[in-house]
Amino acid sequence: MHDFERIQTYVEDNVPAYLLVRLDTTPTSEWLAISYVPDTAKVRDKMLYASTQSALKKALGDSRFKDSIFATSKDDLTPDSYAAHLQHMAAPKPRSAREAEMENIRMAEREAGTNTYEGMRVKRSHVAGAMGLKWAQDAEDAVKSLKDADSSESSFVLLSVDPEAEELILAKTSKGVTPKEVASSIFTDAPSFTLYSWPHLNNGEETTSVVLIYTCPPTSLIKQKMVYSAQVNMLVHTAKGWGVPIARRTEISDPQEINDEFLMQELGHSPEASSTSASAGRTAFAKPRGPPRRK
Q1: How far is CA 46 from CA 17, 68, 220, in A?
Q2: 177-225 residue pLDDT tens
Q3: Which of 50, 82, 93, 102 is most enclosed, with most CB atoms within 10 A?
Q4: CA 249/CA 194 separation, integer angstroms
Q5: In terms of DSSP H, where are the helices of the chain?
Q6: Collapsed DSSP state (helix, strand, coil) of residue 200
């Protein structure tokens, strides 16, 4: 590009022109197309050059041109101006706040997906091709216990992820807890997994349902969201493989959403069919009678 400045000698101050510049001397040379239209040019000339630029490049072969620039004065035809143009083209494109957030999510996803080989101790899930985390022994035992849970007593297991050890760990476990007590036991500042074996009545019949609740508060870090959401399918797959009959899985952002009515709706049961206090005093909607038939 040492002779780029000589281009100025081929143009006039007020007359538009097309300039074709060969960027190298190899057999497969690449070309630069310059559309030179001075601000002081006649309006008719400006319109003529603006309407024929694409046709010229197409006629000569678009693949020949590595780049193209638009110049409005001789000052735009200097080595420094072209270098500034190349620097601008190589610079990262401006991003909106949403695009920046999506890029951070993709980076967190790539980091979360970076795993080193740890032998057969790593449990892999073939659901959606996800990599399953290791299980702490007490967490595994707590989940397996739900398979033979007493149908007359509820069981609650809360799991969380240890990012350093890259494993699912047992955070809490208890028996005989109500849905409201479950809600008050779940973390409100970090994601978690809850498995709740809940004995209840449905249409007058006693039944026990195991519900998996993935809680992800809005204040959770992006990396936490990516790690936990990637483990939901793995957790369901693994628990069912151990014989735990998960009837329903759901996702919430606020643990206070959990109560008797919420669980009945998630299980597809009628809230009025539950014998719990949450549904006490409710009356079924009575459909109004239609008008009498005409005789």
Answers
A1: 10, 17, 56
A2: 999 999 999 999 999 999 999 998 888 788 889 999 999 999 999 888 8
A3: 82
A4: 10
A5: 43-60, 79-90, 97-112, 137-144, 179-185, 222-241, 260-266
A6: strand
Higher pLDDT, 5 or 252: 252
Tens-place pLDDT, residues 61-92 = 877 788 888 888 888 888 888 888 888 877 77
Q: 285 is written with which tokens?
A: 């909607």
Q: Which two tokens stand for residue 161?
A: 């992820």
The number of helix segments (H) and strand segments (E) in the chain equals 7, 9
pLDDT of residue 197: 92
* Distance, CA of 96 to CA of 99 (rounded, Å): 5
How far apart (Å, rounded) are the C-alpha atoms in residues 113 and 170?
Answer: 23
The total of other beta-carbon atoms located within 10 Å of residue 55's CB is 9
Give CA–CA dist 269/266, Å, rounded.
8
Using left for φ > 0, alpha for ψ between -120 and 50, and beta otherwise, residue 204 falls in left
The DSSP secondary-structure symbol of 218 reads: T
Among 169, 178, 194, 198, smallest CA distance to 255 is for 194
Rounded Cα distance, 209 and 264, in Å: 10
Burial of 71 (0-12, 13-18, 19+ CB in 10 A): buried
Higher pLDDT, 167 or 288: 167
**Burial status of residue 277 (CB atoms within 10 A of its CB: 0-12, 13-18, 19 or more):** exposed
3-class secondary-structure state, position 241 = helix
Distance from C-alpha of 212 to C-alpha of 247, rounded to nearest angstrom: 8
pLDDT in tens, 96-138: 777 777 777 777 766 655 444 444 444 444 333 345 688 999 9
Two tokens at 4?
Answer: 């780029």
Q: Is residue 281 predicted with pLDDT exceeding 50?
A: no
Q: Which two tokens stand for residue 241?
A: 């493989």
